[in-house]
Structure formats: C-alpha cells, structure tokens
User: Fold this.
Amino acid sequence: MKINGNFDNMVPSYLFAEIAKRVNQYTQSNPDKDVIRLGIGDVTLPLAPVVVDAMIKGAEELGKKESFKGYPDYEGYAFLREAISNYYRGHGVTVDAHEIFVSDGAKSDCGNIGDIFAMDNTVLVTDPVYPVYVDTNLMAGRRIIYADSNEANGFSAMPDENQQADIIYLCSPNNPTGSVYTREQLKKWVDYANKQDAVILFDAAYEAFITEDLPRSIFEIEGARTCAIEFCSLSKTAGFTGTRCGYTIIPKELERDGKNLHKLWYRRQATKFNGVSWPVQCGAAAVFTEQGQKEIKENIVYYQANARIIASALEDLGIWYTGGTNSPYIWLKCPNGMKSWEFFDLLLTKANVVGTPGAGFGKNGEGYFRLTAFGDKAGTEEAVARIKNVLK
Ligand code: PLP
Assistant:
C-alpha cells in the first residue's frame, strides 16, 4: 500500500506545534520562569452562564426517556439554524435557516469543504494565511497560488485579474493580521469570483470582534450569493474552542459545473458527519438569545481591552502594528529589522512572553509577529511591561 504522498508537500510540523516545542525546551531548562502566552489563539474566559445553563438542561433531557435524543440532524436542529438566521437578519443580512449547516467548528469545515471540489482546481489564498487553508489543500494535492497582503495594501490583498483561480479563501477579520475588508474591497473579490466562475470560501470566525462599520458577512455584498460560502464559529465569539460548534452557509442557488453546491455539501455531511450533540446545540442557541448576546459581549469587550493594552504599549515603543480594533489579533513589525523567529526567541528568553512568528503564516509574514488579546488582563499587562523593558 501507499500513503498519501501529498503529505510530503507540507512543512514538517504545524506552526503551533513548533512553538510549543520551543517553549517546552525553554521552560524545561528554566523551570523558575513564569512564561506568559500571547501566542496561540485560544480563549481564556469561561462560557457565558446562560450557555452553561442551557447545556446542563440539555444534558438532563438526555437523561430522561421522554426527552432523550439520538442522532441529531446532519445539518443541525432547526431551532439553532433559525437562531443563526435571526442573528444575520439583525445585521441586515438575509440567510435562510435551510442554508445553514451546523458543525463542530470552522476549522474542519474549511478543510472538509474540499470534498465537493475537484482536485485539479487552483486554490488562491492571501498571504499571510491561516495555515489550515493551505495544508488541507496540499493534502488533497491541489495547486496553491498566493495574493500578497503587505504593509503597502494594509495587509488586505486584492484580486489580480490576470490570475486564474477556482477556489478563493478570504478571512476577514483576518487571522493573523487583524485587517478587515471594506465593502468596496469585498465587492471587488465577489465580482472577480463571479467573472472567473470561482467560489469564495469566506471565513468570518472573528466577525463578532468588529467594532466599526465594516462587513461581518460576505452576504452583505451584492453578488455574493452566486459565488460564496461562509464559515463561522462560536469558538472566539462565545468561548466554544473546547465545546466545539460552528456553522457553514451555502446559498441554495450557488452552482458550479452544473451542480448545486448546497446539495453536494448536504450529501457530503450526511456521509461523513453525524452532527453536533444536543447539549452543545442547546448551548449554541443560548448564545443567540438577548441574554446570551449580552453575556458574550462582556467577554469580547474584555478581550478588546487587552488588545488596547498591547496596542498602546506598541505605540509607546514606536513599533508599527495593525489590527486590534476589529479583531483580537495585533500584527506588529519586528523592531530593528529582526526576523520573526529571531524576535520570537528574544521575547521568549528575555521577556518570557510567547507570541507567534509571522513567518509561520507565509512569506509576507517574515519580519512580522502576532500577539493575541485572548490572555487575561493581568497577564497581558505584565507581558507588555516585560516587552517594554526588553525593547526600550
Ligand atoms: N478560522 C480561523 C481564521 C481561525 O483563526 C480559527 C481558529 O483559530 C478557526 C477558523 C477555527 O475555528 P473552530 O474552533 O471553529 O474550528
């Protein structure tokens, strides 16, 4: 037998595994050091009380014969899909509940969606890039091309009419750079995709962090329903990184190659996915209630305050950065022309602070660095004080 040789085309280790390795090596030789982690994008605040109550109630229902539930619907329970559809309506976007597929998160859907597309499609990603888009397509053997996001375009790459692409991943607010596309910019991508007969895979995992008048959904843009699929997640919105729940929206009219993509995805999910558990869907629906929105907002505001703490320290140090206002990520330029991993090692060993080297997100990330606002306030304050101490 043979294994999938495409694995040889990927970098040997996942970025965050490499970071963990270096941090472990350092802490093993320096057990007395208190290392603060502002690297991996995991949340630290607990689930909202209203979510926990709904999950407990859901679990209790499973414990009684009259309310026990077996396999859920492949596409998610109607009450949760309705709640998500209402949430979109609240932002002025019409998405029918039948167009929503509830899942165990955006990471798996972003990768699994490839099942419905041919392997000889060309995939366009913006660079720096969330590594999942690249690695899942490399595993499948697809060709990947890149659109450059850099300081000159505000880390918001735009389409190049001379480049032919079939599948286009866009992430806004962006991980890792924190940049957000404007409506005008997204309209250009939508027009480009419709003209090219391409499909945009729009990752809105950080939409809840938008504070300014910027698009939260690709479906705010005219023409998107004929070229776009949207992924979203409760991971960062509501602290579901460990609980696992997300959703994918495929407009009913979206077709390519004479096939309906909504129907293909339903077929794929029915074959390979058996749904999200009842208590988790109950908890997810609670996120979209009035009380749920109030409670999760408090957590988001807490993280946004951390972003402000990091941003103002960088301003004091005169370090160029972007992001932080509409995203939990701060993307900064390594001082004194340092390379990303060089700066990583400096912060780890001198400030005992862990960030993420920009080079791990693609060639345009070299010389940049990502800090996240997901830590606790005291830890973030301590981290920036240490960084200031090292860099002043
Ligand atoms: N999409 C982006 C851009 C992310 O940064 C992440 C998590 O870091 C995900 C998706 C993963 O979301 P989930 O936890 O729902 O799988």
